[in-house]
Amino acid sequence: MIKKMIKIKNKYLFPQSLSTLAAAISISCFSVQSNANNLDLALSDQTIKIGLISDTRADTRSSFEANFFHNEGESNMAALGLHVTSQNKPLKFLLGVKTYYVDFDNNEEGSGIVIGGKAIYAIMPKFTFSAQAYYSPAVTSFGDTEHYKEGEARLNLQLVPGGDVFLGYRNIEVDMEDIGNLEMHEGGFAGVSFVF
After folding, report:
1. Model-level pTM?
2. Taking the CA of residue 117 as centre, how many other CA atoms within 13 Å lie in the half-sphere pointing to its CB?
């Protein structure tokens, strides 16, 4: 009986909290002047990911992130995040929190809050390596999701001012309540990034 009540609470009450948190992130980010924006487009044979990163302060110590991910014929995911950034050179760190919503074609869906971060190392002035990892345990996973894991590494090369190309490897896994672990993507990708 208690387990059933917890399940009902996670499935039906939390989306309101998720919406509130997402709204708070959006308001806090867009109520201040945006100083720099990055638009990413990453593609693989079966997936597409579109991401927007916007600095929210003049000293670029915090940033807002919005992403949409689609796996052909399997799943869709939307995410919002807020990060704080170190200004160390040539190595920079980002620490943050994201909210996500995922929807699978088999009618499984869920949401959650993930924590994690990213490290960016400038190998050369126009050539960087970055790695990121995010995780959501059961306590911050809701709906049909039990856990969420995301890892990514990529090499980024600036070809022209305001325009980069990149290659990378990504793994996104979601543990679903009824059907177990699902891989939204595991493999390489390539893309372009624009600064405006």
Report:
1. 0.80
2. 11
